[in-house]
Amino acid sequence: MLSRTADSLYWIARYMERAENLARILRVTDRLSLMPQGGESGGSEWHSTVVVSDCEEGFYRKYNDATPEHVISYLAFDPDNPSSIRRCIEAARHNARAVRTALTTEQWESLNATWLELALIQENRMRGSGLHRFLDWVRDRSLLFHGGTVATMLRRDSYHFMQLGTFMERGDNTARILDVKYHVLLPEHAEVGGGIDYYQWASILRAVSGYRSYHVLYKEGIRPWLIAEFLIMREQMPRSLISSTARIKDCLDNLGEEYGQRHECHRLAGQYYSQLRFGKVGDVFHQGLHEFLTRYIEQNNQLGVEISRSYLM
Amino acid sequence: MGEAIFDEMGLNGAEVRRAYQGLREWLDETPAEVLSLRREEAETFFRRIGITFAVYGEGGDPERIIPFDIIPRILEAAEWKYISAGLVQRVRALNAFIGDVYGAQEIVRAGLVPLDQIILNETYQHQMQGVQVPAGVYTHVSGIDMVRVGPEEFYVLEDNVRTPSGVSYMLENREITMRLFPELFSRHNVAPVDHYCDDLLVTLSSVRPRNCDDDPTVALLTPGIYNSAYYEHSFLADQMGVELVEGPDLYVKDDIVYMRTTEGPKRVDVIYRRVDDDYLDPLAFRPDSMLGAAGLMNAYREGNVTLANAVGAGIADDKSTYTYVPAMIEFYLGEKPILRNVPTYRCSEPDDYAYVIERLDELVVKQVHGSGGYGMLVGPKATRAELAVFTQLLKASPEKYIAQPTLALSTCPTFVNEGVAPRHVDLRPFVLAGTEIRVVPGGLTRVALREGSLVVNSSQGGGTKDTWVLRE
Questions:
Q1: ipTM above 0.90, yes or no
Q2: Domain span(s) for CATH 3.40.50.11290 in chain B
Q3: Domain count, chain A
Q4: Interior/surface letters B368-394, b for 16+ CB within 10 angstroms, e for the rest
Q5: pTM for this one?
Q6: Does any CB of chain A come closer than 8 Å to the CB of residue B272?
């Protein structure tokens, strides 16, 4: 297939996954800010959200403070923010239009309908239940698209490129969410394991749809090192780092087999997967969670560059 | 050219014409509310599928849908037989003309077409002189614009042999009519059109370069998603199962064209290009073009890739060339033209100019190189100011204009806000020319939705209809 087509498919999936993750993050932030403990952390939820989504620079160029209104507007709707939900959906649909022959009817119609409905959504209705309806809508549209992809797309290179985009983005997002909790969200003088800490860790789990799953796997209650293990090394958890890395490796293996050729990206994916598969969570803490996650994000980026070099240009 | 307007169904107590009897009954028994509902369904369908086109330079919604009129236009088998024979004849002559222009120019030596008409024409491409194209085919895809003024009177208004568009609407309109009105459809014996894309692929494959294998790689070259016909490009590529490529996807090495794929370079043999000549190759034409591929013309001249339609084919569909087509048919084929031309005044000629400038308010004036209904004057409908503007334009550069009498275009029943009412229509059938010539029974019917309007162009508020050709 054309490299440009593969590139577009890969980015359609990445943009939809990014839009969904932003919606998840905004929902949890809004929930946190409603809790009594929210006052104690001085409203840092909204600032942390800006950090999670990697928009600090652009956001504070435009606004002085992270009020709920500013953050929601910037992350959900701002056309100047290249990672806003609006821009992600527009970019996904733009790419889809360019390669619609490579998509199934279900995929195209779902993306096109999402884009058409987005144009009807009014930003000024985004308070209270309006915001929740909107965020649910974003999540649902992404899940619908993803489901449409899995259910209708022929298992060949085009499918693997889309899945690759989904899991590259998901791994990156999960790492960022976890990293921000460790570094930014926790107020300096707050007691580790205290009330604020508990809700914040719980919110991390909710952001990745992992709150209930965590309790199924771990009976000890909310424990930071267990949450880290859950989100880094548990392959049962579909949004964990190892899950994303394993799926990336699978996609690349499938492509390698289909094309009869392997590249540097295959070696890297294998290496990164082994690190997670055979590493110990104790070592992660020994090394420092933040350092570990920073390295993960860098490696993920490097893998992205290699994937591009081998297939997308 | 009769004064009275011919309605293809039959109006005001006139007898309903045979092809329309089933439709007339169906219209009588179907309440307007049902038609309204169906029209809304049709619009939703077009939006959802994303069948849109762009209108240049007007702002507003960049992706509009062309209004679709839900009432089909119907042609009888005998009418179609006559039309398609005329189309095949016409395309054979146009193709022979292009081959002659870029070859021995016998038609010039015979004194039928002046040399200046060719070599001073903006569409003439001197790079094509002496180039051999596979099977001698230049006009792989033609769209011939026709109008009807009476039961037996069809005229060709314009030939389009560069990159004619609209065929996707012919196909999608049929899809939607079958979906919306299965009962009406099943009452008629309608010739299918959905093999068009198969025919197109067969046509393109039949003109593969001589040095390629039996399974040529065909690609459709599009200017990209901002092009007004992008939907059609992606639709056709999809239906044919070929790659839809943009300029940057292609590169030329040692006079061979390749596309960049996830498996490395892949040779391309036939390019159905929907990019104009001037943008195909920055080395041969406009150096600022990003829409083509550098070196494409060399590969083409070497016979390593086939371009469809051929470079320079525009010489045959220029509006001033149009007037010579009947002569071409007699010259190249030794046949009488089956389809008639509309009498046309060439403003470059002093006598014609004098005639036109006196009668602007009766005539339709068109730019020789224009398309899409832009820069055109419909005399009888024009304001004084518009007439004054065109008088100036004509005085300044008469050679850029032609004029034709205003034709009383036929009307067809159309569902508009006032209910079912007659509206003017034209017809663009599509002709495919490879080693064989094929015409799919049907075409794109365009309809002027405003009462009395004669301008059917989609860029000027026209709509489309499904076009049925009945089988015997």
A1: no
A2: 210-304
A3: 1
A4: beebebeebbbbeebeeeeeeebeebb
A5: 0.83
A6: no
